[in-house]
Design a protein that fits this description.
Helix content: 10-25%
Order of helices and strands: HEEHEHEHHEEEHEHHEEEEEEE
Strand order of the largest sheet: 1-6-7-8-9-11-10-12
Structural class: alpha/beta
Radius of gyration: 19 Å
Low-confidence stretches: 1-9, 22-28
Oligomer: single chain
Mean pLDDT: 91
């Protein structure tokens, strides 16, 4: 287990108690979607969330700038942090919204690359199995959407045979079933097929993540989910994730937790570990402002508007750039694991 400096023995105890509670060995793990080698100096990708509005609410403008930045960086893939189709997901695998909100919007040449997506709460209001269906990849081969999965990249700057490489592991999670509010009687109906019984599903997902993190030897570890752990946006912190997910990812030295849900761009630094919390939920409708009484501890940046992020993983350095709807740089984050002399 790789430990970070800021974690406490209380968190160690939580992890051990969690492990002890697993009475049966897991028969599944995070689906291993892709393991690839990138020959080149860096791994480059974009992150956007909360976008699927048929081009409205500046979705098309954000898409245009994503295409421009994607071309400049020569991106390898795009990550979607969920809420892919508003307001109520897809009605089926033939829903025209797939074309109207995805294929027909992100048309730039640079964006014709794999899209790795998680589900958001609005996606669960529709036919979830349709959005997860391999049939959508027939309509658009870029589309990769699963409930939870694992993506591993080895970065080889001097060729496959050089022996010199760094790596980045991405852990995609389904955070929707963690949120108690969605299970209470209300105005919305959620498609929980494949999730019920809830507690078994959550326990299995956390166990799978823990096993995958335990096995990871990557230079960089990045966890992606729809809901924020920390946020000062209109939804604020997600208490269920603070209680159940945060201790695990801090204990295993995760570098970034990346999410959507709040329609803004954010950067919050962890208080008890080097973990950084990044929100990229500005793919379309935004301007919801900050939550009244939000926990401002660790806040580094907040942008109340549309936009997206780019990431460059280059050896022991990771650089993140935040862009607004016009493609202007509004914030940057630089992380380094190089040993200081």
């Amino acid at each position: 287990m790789q430990r970070t400096e800021g974690w406490t023995w209380a968190k160690v105890y939580l992890i051990l108690m969690f492990l002890c509670s697993l009475t049966h060995k897991s028969h599944s793990s995070l689906q291993h979607v892709r393991s690839a080698k990138k020959v080149g100096d860096s791994l480059n990708f974009l992150v956007v969330g909360d976008w699927g509005r048929k081009g409205l609410y500046n979705q098309s403008r954000v898409a245009t700038q994503m295409g421009r930045i994607g071309e400049e960086l020569g991106i390898d893939f795009v990550i979607s942090t969920g809420d892919n189709f508003y307001d109520n997901g897809l009605t089926g695998i033939g829903d025209p919204s797939f074309e109207e909100s995805f294929s027909g919007i992100y048309t730039a040449k640079s964006l014709q690359t794999p899209w790795y997506s998680v589900l958001g709460n609005h996606d669960y209001r529709g036919d979830v199995l349709a959005q997860l269906s391999p049939s959508l990849r027939i309509r658009d081969p870029r589309w990769n959407c699963e409930r939870s999965f694992f993506l591993k990249y080895d970065i080889c700057p001097h060729g496959l045979e050089s022996g010199e490489h760094t790596s980045a592991d991405f852990f995609f999670l389904d955070t929707n079933p963690f949120v108690d509010q969605y299970w209470e009687p209300g105005n919305h109906t959620y498609d929980w097929r494949g999730v019920i019984p809830r507690q078994k599903y959550l326990k299995q997902q956390l166990q799978n993540l823990l096993v995958a993190l335990e096995a990871s030897t990557a230079t960089w570890k990045i966890v992606i989910g729809h809901h924020p752990i920390r946020s000062v946006g209109s939804h604020g912190d997600t208490d269920e994730l603070i209680q159940q997910l945060l201790p695990i990812i801090e204990a295993y030295g995760v570098d970034l937790y990346v999410n959507g849900h709040d329609h803004c761009l954010e950067h919050i630094s962890g208080i008890n570990s080097p973990l950084q919390f990044l929100t990229s939920g500005g793919g379309s409708k935004a301007w919801k402002g900050m939550k009244e009484g939000a926990n401002m501890e660790g806040l580094q940046f907040f942008h109340n508007g549309q936009g997206f992020m780019s990431f460059k993983v280059q050896g022991k350095r990771l650089h993140t750039t935040f862009y607004d709807v016009e493609g202007n740089t509004v914030h940057e984050l630089e992380l380094s694991k190089e040993t200081k002399p």
